[in-house]
Input
Amino acid sequence: MDVLVPFDAIDPKRRLEPVLGADERHDFAEAMLADVLEAVAGGGGDPRVVATADVRVAAPVDVDERPLSPAVNDRLARADRPLAIVMADLPLATPTAIARLLEASGPVVAVPGLGGGTNALVVREPAFRVDYHGCSIRDHRERAAAVGTTLTTVDSYRLGVDVDEPADLAEVLLHAEGRARAWLEAHGVRIVHADGRVSVERSPGD
Amino acid sequence: MDVLVPFDAIDPKRRLEPVLGADERHDFAEAMLADVLEAVAGGGGDPRVVATADVRVAAPVDVDERPLSPAVNDRLARADRPLAIVMADLPLATPTAIARLLEASGPVVAVPGLGGGTNALVVREPAFRVDYHGCSIRDHRERAAAVGTTLTTVDSYRLGVDVDEPADLAEVLLHAEGRARAWLEAHGVRIVHADGRVSVERSPGD
Output
């Protein structure tokens, strides 16, 4: 299946500013993208990056300067077969998790992300369009209903945990195995324990 | 399979203090427990609550005043067949998710929770013991290795999202269907959008 992987190549992962500088956010975002592309290919998908500027990765890249939703919707409108959309900030993704997504049946299949996001979609219903703004999983349920179909979900932590905020970096260090984890380790980001959930800190000088 | 559901009946869910009062935290925790027990039974498990004080629920209750890890380990030491442990704060749990857990093969099967937790376990290896303190998923991996076996994981968002912090309440409102969600809605807790992930606010007076 064709799998779009949208990527902000200009100013990615702004909410990681407390931990990473601008160039670092760019490098780390590219590491996550590379991990996602590898998982998509390993899970049986044919990945294509849709990026706001050129990026060098192991997949074809379309440069499209439009915001996320119109860039994806234009491709949905032109698609003559099922199309999947997988976010680029899912470094916990594995080939197995991607295969579960691509093999799940249903006209619109979604993986909910933390905080109301829609981290992955398989769209087999030609009339369905995305809206990633706001509480997108709720909006996508309503949009599926509005075109006479039903959104079904795939229950996956590996695809449900996207990396937006500093605490999410702990998930990468705990559960990912690829470039994004290696990048964090090489840049001094490590797990810290407190009461409750673990978080991260960064070594001075790293 | 026998499924232990440990429950803090004395002072549950302290990190929800910014949103819920002490009595409310108790009522909400019991609503989550009831949802979990229903999912466990629906998923093919035989639930038994291990609570720090008596609680009225639709399952047998053992009162055990010890902390979580010794209370569970005592039962693991006495078990003569596989035993599962499922946390009581997983109101997104469904029978399907529980069935995936109970049917997953392996001597020690775990569902990682947000921030390094271990939200559910199936223990078929008699020598394995738990330690829920700190970054438990990492500790449980090491403990499985120390008794000559391997911890495998089940990839589930519905079991991976536990409810500890106010932002987690948004997950309940978005993805749960049972008593915990109804309790939040009846007490004025609702989704709010900002940039990025959604959160919750509470109506004045509720």
